[in-house]
Amino acid sequence: MIFSEIYSAYYNTVAKILKSILSGDVSEKEILKIINQNAFSESVLTVLPAIKDERWQIINKDLSTPIKHIPTMPLTILEKRWLKAITEDPRIKLFGADIDLDDTEPLFTPEDYKVFDKYADGDPFEDEEYIERFRLILTAIKEKRPVVAKMYNRNGSKIKVRFFPKYLEYSEKDDKFRVIADGCRFSQFNLARFISCKYYDGNGGWNETPREINTKELTLLIKDERKAMERVMLHFAHFEKSSEKIDDEHYRVKIKYLESDETEIVIRVLSFGPYVKVCEPESFVDLIKERLNLQKSCGLK
Which run of H or E residues covers position 200? Predict the structure, then answer.
């Protein structure tokens, strides 16, 4: 892919490496630093070997380059068409992106693809009040400001909560945004449940008891057949993780996740079949066995 919200990091990283080389002598240590700062944690496994083996033919083994000028990355017609397609996604309005591509034909439209295994009651991304609350939460996260919100709980009752928003999390399957919170007895909220939302002004007592957000770590052994490693990295792209190459066919990947998301993680891991093995913790292995036994009892194969 020439342009992608995921893979464009590689092109920008290599461009920075080339700029560093053209600006003067550069060491392998400095290249590693550029990769770690601009790409993904597992990119060292891809970028540096490609440079050393001269697979890309833009950087020599002695860390020189045949390129004479510092690379620039103007948008191609293909990239503009991709951006035009993205701007037609209703979620883009949440971020206030203003991209003028009126004279560009979109690369694809919602009518060109069908999404399976996704709930139909997603968040109202085009609702003006929802957009306003989303942007307020996003600003509060950046500025580390507390928020007070009125919302519906699971029983349909109105409640008032005060919290520090830590980050926003999007569920592709649910098509919903969740607010991960601190300083409150609840650890997360569905943003669409908010009736109103504003910055906390300091008036009124703070009665909520902070609830510790428990995180867990999962270790997977991946057999890299049918692009299993690439699919795992894409599937868990928004999780904190690290990877280690064991041999030509096997990788070890460690993934950190919220304890509240454990059931969903079990389902995701099972979707890779025999190409992914859970090494630890043993409690997660037991959850995998339990899930498989349930499927077997229902006659599922």
Answer: none
Q: How far apart are CA 98 and CA 101, in angstroms?
A: 9
Q: Is the pTM of this model over 0.70?
A: no
Bridge partners of 24, per DSSP, are none
Element (H, E) at 64: none
Q: Which of 73, 13, 72 is nearest to 39 (CA)?
A: 13
**Residue 190, strand partner residues:** 178
Vertex 190, ends 195 and 219: CA angle to 5°? Answer: 165
Residues 214-258 have pLDDT tens digits of 789 999 999 988 888 988 988 888 788 899 989 989 999 999 998
Q: How far is CA 123 from CA 53, 97, 120, 127, 192, in A?
A: 47, 19, 9, 9, 6
Sign, Cα dihedral of 236, 38, 80, 175: positive
Q: CA–CA separation, 72 vs 70, rounded Å?
A: 7
Identify whether the C-beta of residue 181 lies closer than 8 Å to the C-beta of residue 166: yes
DSSP result, 115-182: --S--S----TT-HHHHHHHHHHHHHHHHT--EEEEEE-TTS-EEEEEEEEEEEEEETTTTEEEEEEE
